């Protein structure tokens, strides 16, 4: 990481679709010691598996430029409000993060959270996109729960569900099991889109794809194509309603 907690991929132009990926990276700077086993950095507690590949594919192949996080959510969770208790998590899915206990939260916010969101705000203001795709992935089952998560893809939203309703229908028409504000509700956790979409009156899709469906490059390419297609059709539907 070149001191930036984000990177931009793809050619930007005014309007169209864009993608943001808050949890795309498992990078931990050398000067931050989390005190966890190295293997945890390859698991869902550290990174949204498959998201980076999908975002890059959409940017390079389908002209959907992306704002991609370059730091693990275990260092600073960019998809939380600054005052959220989990913005620098001390545990995740039953795993203690001892290096974050007593961490200087203000320093983490200043180094990672604020530059990430300030850059996103500037980027979005310059593009004024027609639709934002907020891309995440979820694990089929949490370690701390016996509940299976059967959805292939899910749409999250807070107060504005217009785009989500179209996407739920369109993904369903492809034979997928589609979650409606699952596996958690966007009414409770929608920080990035609350700030950069709902507060600005921008259309958005907050997407969660099940991680075991997007572990390979081939799977990521297939989902990039499908998401770009569905998002494009959602955008057309919203414009027809305007």
Automatic annotation (TrEMBL):
Q: Does the keyword Transcription regulation apply?
A: no
Q: Which Pfam families match?
A: FGase (PF05013)
Q: What class of enzyme is it?
A: hydrolase
**Which SUPFAM superfamilies does the UniProt entry name for this protein?**
Zn-dependent exopeptidases (SSF53187)
Q: What is its EC number?
A: 3.5.1.68
A GO molecular function held by the record: N-formylglutamate deformylase activity
Give the superkingdom in one word.
Answer: Bacteria
Q: Which UniProt keywords apply?
A: Hydrolase
The molecule here is called N-formylglutamate amidohydrolase
Source organism per entry reads: Altererythrobacter epoxidivorans
């Amino acid at each position: 990481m070149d001191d930036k907690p984000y990177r931009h991929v793809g050619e930007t132009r005014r309007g169209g679709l864009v993608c943001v990926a808050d949890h795309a990276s498992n990078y931990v700077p050398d000067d931050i010691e989390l005190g966890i086993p190295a293997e945890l950095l390859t698991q869902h507690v550290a990174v949204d598996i498959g998201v980076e590949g999908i975002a890059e594919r959409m940017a390079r192949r389908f002209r959907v430029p992306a704002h991609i996080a370059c730091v693990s959510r275990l260092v600073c969770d960019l998809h939380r409000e600054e005052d959220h208790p989990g913005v620098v998590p001390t545990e995740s899915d039953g795993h203690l993060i001892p290096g974050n206990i007593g961490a200087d939260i203000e320093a983490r916010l200043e180094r990672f959270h604020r530059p990430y969101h300030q850059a996103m705000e500037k980027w979005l203001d310059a593009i004024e996109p027609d639709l934002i795709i907020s891309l995440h992935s979820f694990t089929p089952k949490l370690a701390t729960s016996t509940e299976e998560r059967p959805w292939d893809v899910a749409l999250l939203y807070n107060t504005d569900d217009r785009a989500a309703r179209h996407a739920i229908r369109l993904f369903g028409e492809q034979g997928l099991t589609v979650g409606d504000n699952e596996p958690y509700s966007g009414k409770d956790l929608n920080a990035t889109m609350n700030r950069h979409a709902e507060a600005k009156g921008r259309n958005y899709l907050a997407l969660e794809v099940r991680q075991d469906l997007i572990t390979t490059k081939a799977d990521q390419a297939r989902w990039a194509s499908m998401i770009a297609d569905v998002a494009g059709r959602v955008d057309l539907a919203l414009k027809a309603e305007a």
